[in-house]
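Re: [help] complex structure
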Amino acid sequence: MSALAIRDLVVRFDGPEGPTTAVDGATLDIAEGQTVALVGESGAGKSVTARAILRLLRSPPARIDGGEILFDGDDIRGLSERQMRTIRGARIGMIFQDPLAALNPVYSIGKQIMEPLLIHRRCGRHEAKKRALKLLEQVGFPDPKRRFALFPHELSGGMRQRAMIAAALACEPELLIADEPTTALDMVAARGIMDLLRSIKEQRKMAMLLISHDLGVVTQLADEIAIMYAGRIVERGPRANVMNQPLHPYTRGLLQSVPPLRTKPRRRDRDAVRLPVIPGSAPAMRGATTSCRFADRCADVMARCHEEAPPLFRANDDAHGSRCFLHAPVSEANA
Amino acid sequence: MTDPITKSAEPASLPQSGSAQRKKKKKKKPEQALLYVQDLNKAYPRPAGLFRKAELSHALHDVNFYIRHRETFGLVGESGCGKTTLAMCILRLIEPTMGRVLFDGKEVTTLRSGELRQLRRRMQIVFQDPYASLNPHMTVRDLVAEGIEVFGLAASKHSIDDMAGTMLERVGLSRDAMTRYPHAFSGGERQRIAIARALAVSPDFLVLDEPLSALDLSVQAQIINLLDDLQQKLNLTQLFISHDLRAVQYVSHRMAIMHLGRIVEMGPSSSVAKDRFHPYTRALFTAMASAPSEGGDENEPRKLPIVNALADEISRGCAYASRCERQEERCHRERPVLREIEVGSHHRVACWQPYLES
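Output below.
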């Protein structure tokens, strides 16, 4: 049973120059208690996917043009706004990249953590405060009673992010969506947030959709990895498979462009720096495409890649798959 | 004893006053570094509060380092540690409170405006955010040509255009880009424009202040390669400032780790990455998640303490002591100075309890 299933999701944005396809047939499953990382570069459609799940996309210009988003068996697209409100912040929690923008500057963090409890759990103020204090403690606030009345501007970036996590967890959601939770933070603070998310995930057995462009964060937290490129999920599979035996040429290129640790001194005028790179940049996403979106940058491109979009080909006991004709079954490749 | 930089424990000798220098002359001239930063301090006044006297907030404390010709020197630290302040003091975009900056033998800190202007041509900077650093109302041609015009490096409009076009090609863009505006370009292309703009006046020294952080991973690799390529072709000396430890240790020849305005560790990048003498350096490398190829032990919990930066800043001893897992009484009492662990290694650390076992 999966906590969340996305099937062939298509999201388009209308604009003066015609619609832009931000998500182009994304399919994703998150099993209960599992963390799935959605990895991709900016503009790949990661955040749009996350916002589509919570129906947070402003429409117009955004429209969901196809596919379904199944949460606990129901298609989120068919729910009324009233029903949606019982899900948002209660059964699905979300944390954002920039806590300073996401938290309300005129309320204390304690109040903001109490808010979802008062709305969704309909508990009294006293009870809500008690729970909020406990949450603050859980996310690593020393002396939560004193910190309760602090305002977001009085906290460091890492502590703000912790406060936002506490608010997102207040109603014990079944699914937590974390959109770039460490990007705005310093490295040491980011490490603290990753440790916190890992311990939460272990304690609560909650499903998590982790959105990140940072392969380091993903290696630390994810059970499954989905690589997104130009609106499509081009590869998905268990973390170790994707990281150690990447299939799709894009994934391989991405992993190779991480600078390695130096073991030998770099000599002046002698040792040049040459990281393997993916040439070019991501394509504009206007209109429909009937080809592989990565074809123009791919070193292994074939004639076929320009003619049709590859479906997901399974490898390694079906758990790991890639949308690349390189991994088409032999019988089909010959056809 | 031919090359004082690689052989002696001291950094390359500082320029002496006239006669002393002449006497010292040997068969092979000792290498002078391009840039020396000596005891550099920057303090900002913090006005008095309700229960507080006015005091100074120190952004930089006694910073000392040098950068050799055609070398990339990396500077790593968390936000607010003084990395950018240091770059600004070197370029004299802000005035340091104390200390000296010597660029090619000239003291930058006391230059008058006319001379400073000439020096500015030789020292250029590329900023973090190419969305903010390029004027959206200027065409790419005007952006790149601005410096050439200001310093009068080309006579005719035609030759200015030609220089700007050559520069754009150098950074991997086409000449057609000249007539367009920055908004027509992606982040990576904009950063290339910013680099072309900085290099158009043929500087010797380039400060790169977080040049990668606004870019995607695959684009970062492209820019890393480009910067190195340009260094080789144009004989550039670079100061590479970033919080991205992984990128810095990869691109730089030598690097320094900065913590609350002080350099706590400095040395050849590979030694710093390998030895990690200072506990803070260790914490940073630990926080840097391991890459898949390094087979990281991702399940090992690594708790890092929560920080009280202000308390650290006013501490009399080591500013990192209260967060440090190796703290002892002395660390709170006495401030450690940068010293070489192994003489001649040029790997220095400011710590009373460095990690000496690997």
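Chain A touches chain B through 50 residues (CB under 8 Å).
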